Amino acid sequence: MLKEQPRLEPMRDRDLAEVVTLENGIYPHPWTRGNFADSLKAGYECWTWREGRTLLGYFVLTAGAGEAHLLNLSVFSERQRQGHGSSLLRDAMRIARERGAAELFLEVRPSNGRAIALYEKFGFERIAIRRDYYPSSGRREDAHVYRFAL
Predict the structure, then answer these.
(1) Which positions of the chain have pLDDT values less than 50?
(2) Which of 43, 61, 70, 123 could bridge across to 106 with cysteines, CB 3.0–4.6 Å?
């Protein structure tokens, strides 16, 4: 029997409990259900990455005025380093282009080496630092701002 290939599907309200469970398993300071629900309500590009019925990852992207911002891209920790992040990033870039964006921006924690390696592999360039952007244990953590010309 052939293994089912992962597929991209629009995120729906019914996905939020599962998405939040995955998010909570990855990050010490995860997005809340409200963050995801607000993104859906605002009409952002919210997508899930599934293998059969199993949620492997997701991303949230906003696009407008010729640019896009990748707000969240996450892969289930046990399925990382298997190409799923690359697949999701390719899809996010494609959707950003389809929405008329010429550039894609994102922020990433300097402590998130895996994400930085992924973005730099694709040719994203670090263009700025946002001081004290992210919550962190007992303090704040900077964000590295990356840009990619689509």
Answers:
(1) none
(2) 70
Annotated active-site residue in 107, 125, 134, 141? 107
Q: How far is CA 57 from the centre of its chain?
A: 8
- DSSP reduced 3-state for 70: strand
Domains and CATH numbers, the chain: 7-149 (3.40.630.30)
Using the Cα atoms of residue 25, residue 34, residue 117 and residue 141 in order, give the sign of their dihedral.
negative
pLDDT per position as a tens digit, 10-26 = 999 999 999 999 999 99
Please state whether the predicted TM-score (pTM) of the whole model is above 0.85.
yes
Strands in 103-108's sheet, in edge-to-edge order, are 7-10, 45-51, 54-64, 67-75, 103-108, 139-149, 125-136
How many angstroms separate the CA atoms of 101 and 99, rounded?
Answer: 6
Q: Is 44 a catalytic residue?
A: no
